[in-house]
Every structure is written in C-alpha cells, then in structure tokens.
Design a protein that fits this description.
Layout lengths: L3 E5 L7 E5 H5 L18 E5 L7 E5 H8 L2
Antiparallel strand pairs: 1-2, 3-4
Bound molecules: zinc ion.
Length: 70
C-alpha cells in the first residue's frame, strides 16, 4: 500500500505537495512494507515544489517515521 504525506512548500504559496513515501525512499532502501530500521531513512529530504520555482518541500525522518507508524 502506497503511503503518501502532504507537505507544504516553504515558498510564498505554501503549496501542498503530495509526497509518495515509497517513491521517496526507493533510491536508498528496498521497500517492501517499509524500511527495516529508522536509521535507513535519510534524516531529511529536500525536494523542489511542484507548483513554484523557489519553494522547497522538506520531509524529515520524523515525518516519515510518523507516517509509517514507527
Ligand atoms: Zn510552492
């Protein structure tokens, strides 16, 4: 089951970006039901906003752990 979280960008528009956790974590961990350890999750992702050029979407490990129920 694909888990998504909604994260606002830090630009002026505060756009809500839907972040797919399995897509996000795919490069670093092989996801079959989530990373085995929280330590496998990078501390922080910094993604470009889909709606604007200057906004960044920050996803922290804590947010991911919460979404995964860890
Ligand atoms: Zn934005």
């Amino acid at each position: 089951m694909a888990k998504t979280i909604n994260v606002r960008c830090n630009g002026l528009g505060r756009h809500v970006n839907e972040v797919h956790l399995d897509t996000l974590l795919q490069p670093t961990t092989v996801l079959r039901g989530g990373p085995r350890n929280a330590e496998d999750i990078p501390e922080r992702f910094d993604l470009p906003c889909r709606e604007c050029a200057d906004g960044r979407v920050i996803v922290t490990r804590e947010m991911i752990k919460k979404a995964l129920g860890r």
